[in-house]
Specification:
two-stranded antiparallel ribbon, globular, mainly alpha, disordered N terminus, 12 helices, single chain, A middle domain of Talin 1
Length: 365
């Protein structure tokens, strides 16, 4: 579990979300000049870091694996809100935004975050050790959700193009919710021990390394976490036109916007997972990474399916050929990584190579 000092809430973590919310109130719905965009970006980064802090406080109070679940759901709410709000503003030009962002989240978590954490854990202890039962269940769920929601639409024939028909979209949404709910029940109730950190000898660790925060402190963090998430969503929406103009001016594909959004919203996960790996809690890191990938699909697809009722533009979910190859490689490599329950720096490097390949193809398809 991520260690936290037994001190009251840091002042910065309470002040930054409040100031970010005030800035959001003054900038909402307005065209922002470049100088103000820089200020908004600074507060956006601060709100993200504050969200990480408060999610970790709550996580330390409730313990593992509930703590990983708290942060995964929290950052996915940011992603869902951003996707839906940007799709409602963009019309046909944002038809692929949900697909691009969800696939980016899968690549970032399953290759980027997993690769970094395995590398950190293996360099620290020669071997990164984790529980293959829990990690395997999480990875299998991510693979199934990605296949049902992102691969199948490319091959269906009810509608032209890589789109689902209404009935197919309803099925994908319901299946996503059902699988995510089943996994959460497995992770937190029936097989909680599968998702706890383990020692180098494979023994389960179920103790804390510091006294948990008080109930009052945890409740305050819950409230401030909500404020920080609202600020992140609102400020990110404010700077998104600048991101879109920058991507267009650089001559990059429109899908890069989805990559930027995913990188932004997964920054809290990346920081928290890296910290956990550095403290020899690789299982916690994998819970965070794969839990985020799962929540990204399991919550985003139902949300955009519901939003499509009032969105006028098409909803393109099917992946192209190169992205399906990357997903297939990720699944194959992920299986070989998970099954032994331990990894060397080599496995971390392989995942990072796949992530680098994804970034290269994102900017130069």
């Amino acid at each position: 579990m991520i260690r936290l000092a037994r001190v009251p809430l840091d002042r910065w973590s309470a002040l930054v979300p409040a100031l970010a919310l005030v800035l959001l109130a003054f900038t909402w719905g307005r065209s922002l000049p470049s100088g103000l965009v820089a200020l908004v970006a600074c507060f956006l980064a601060g709100a993200v870091l504050a969200a990480v802090h408060h999610a970790e406080v709550v996580a330390h109070r409730v313990g593992e694996p509930f703590g990983s679940l708290v942060l995964a759901v929290a950052v996915t709410i940011i992603e869902v809100a951003l996707i839906v709000t940007l799709m409602s503003d963009g019309g046909d030009k944002n038809a692929t935004l949900a697909r691009d962002t969800v696939f980016a989240a899968v690549m970032i978590t399953c290759n980027g975050i997993v690769g970094v954490c395995l590398l950190i854990g293996a360099l620290r202890r020669r071997l990164a050790v984790f529980n293959p039962e829990g990690t395997g269940a999480a990875f299998a769920t991510v693979t199934t959700l990605a296949g049902l929601s992102l691969v199948l639409p490319t091959f269906t024939t009810s509608k032209p193009g890589p789109e689902f028909s209404t009935a197919q979209l309803v099925f994908a949404a319901l299946a996503s919710v059902a699988l995510y709910g089943l996994f959460v029940a497995t992770q937190t109730v029936r097989h909680r021990d599968y998702f706890l950190p383990v020692t180098q000898q494979g023994e389960v660790l179920d103790e804390e390394h510091a006294d948990p925060p008080s109930a009052r402190t945890a409740l305050i963090s819950v409230g401030l976490l909500g404020v920080a998430l609202v600020a992140v969503v609102g400020l990110a929406k404010g700077v998104s036109p600048t991101i879109e103009r920058g991507v267009a001016a650089a001559g990059l594909p429109a899908s890069v916007v989805g990559v930027v959004i995913a990188l932004l919203v997964l920054l809290p996960e990346t920081i928290a997972a890296s910290r956990a790996a550095a403290r020899d809690r690789v299982q916690t890191s994998l819970n965070l990474a794969l839990g985020s990938a799962m929540a990204s699909i399991g919550l985003t697809i139902p949300a955009v399916a519901l939003a499509s009722v009032w969105l006028s533009g098409p909803l393109v979910l099917g992946l192209g050929a190169s992205h399906m190859v990357l997903l297939a490689l990720t699944v194959g490599v992920g299986i070989l990584t998970v099954v032994p329950g331990r990894a060397t720096p080599m496995q971390g490097g392989v995942h990072l190579a796949l992530f680098a390949g994804y970034l290269v193809l994102a900017v130069s398809p």
